[in-house]
Amino acid sequence: MQRPIPWVWIALAGLLLLAPGTVGRLFLDLAEGLTLLLLVLPVLLGVGGFVAWQLLQRRLQPCPACGFLSAGLDVCPACGCDLAKTKGSSSAGRTEIFDASTATVDVEAVDVDQST
Ligand SMILES: [Zn+2]
Fold it and tell me: Looking at residues 7-36, what average pLDDT do you find?
């Protein structure tokens, strides 16, 4: 079942657009504002999201023991490492956390044939 074409509303909208007057001007201003809002709103949301992501990334702090990212916590939620203690001291005083690339592992070589 086809709906009839609403010629009355089309004619009324055309009259509003063509007729010089306050109603036609208001209609055009409203359409212009809505179009501008639809075009500018995604850009504004994108810029706002980017700035919020940068702020959040600056606040995130990796756990020195497991690498879990958290913000504003004193204890790592993943492993329970004390983040407040490691945040204050930079390198001195750390006993359990060290850089693995500078560590030296001592290995004693044992001859298998002589031990039997
Ligand atoms: Zn952790």
Answer: 85
Rounded distance between C-alpha atoms, residue 31 and residue 24, angstroms: 11
What whole-number distance in Å separates Cα of residue 53 and Cα of residue 60?
10
How much distance in Å is there from the Cα of 82 to the middle of ligand 1? 8
* Token pair for 88: 């204050």
73 vs 31: CA distance, rounded Å: 49
The pLDDT score that the predictor gives to residue 92 is 43
Distance (angstroms) between ligand 1 centre and the Cα of 80 equals 6
User: Based on C-alpha coordinates, what's the Rg of the chain?
Assistant: 34
CA–CA separation, 70 and 99 (whole Å)? 21
Dist. CA 55–CA 45, nearest whole Å: 15
Supply the pTM of this predicted model: 0.44
Residue 116 has pLDDT above 70, yes or no: no
